[in-house]
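To: structure subgroup
Subject: Chain for Friday's discussion

All,

I'm putting the inputs and outputs inline so they're searchable in the archive.
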Amino acid sequence: MKKILSNYIEHSIIDEYADKNHFDGYSLHINDLPKNEIENFLSMLFDHDEVTKDLILDRMHELIDSQLPIKECKDKYEQGYVPVQDRNNGEIFWRFTA
């Protein structure tokens, strides 16, 4: 696994895109990589690095979870529901008004 990533980084990223100067050293800025190369690299990480895969999936889950309530409210409003607060216990429920 690590050998595959190491080879990919060395040959497909550094050999192709790094600024190579034997006096000042090698450098490579991620922002200088073409979009397709970034996508290829992320795909390799996702396929071969479980830690990275878990981090990406966790972040993806957080982003989706943050949008779910917003989308739910929009859809309910579009279908004719409005939020109403129960006067006895303060809970919010949806009432159909159309």
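Points worth raising on Friday:
The chain has a mean pLDDT of 91.
The CA atoms of residues 70 and 76 lie 10 Å apart.

D.
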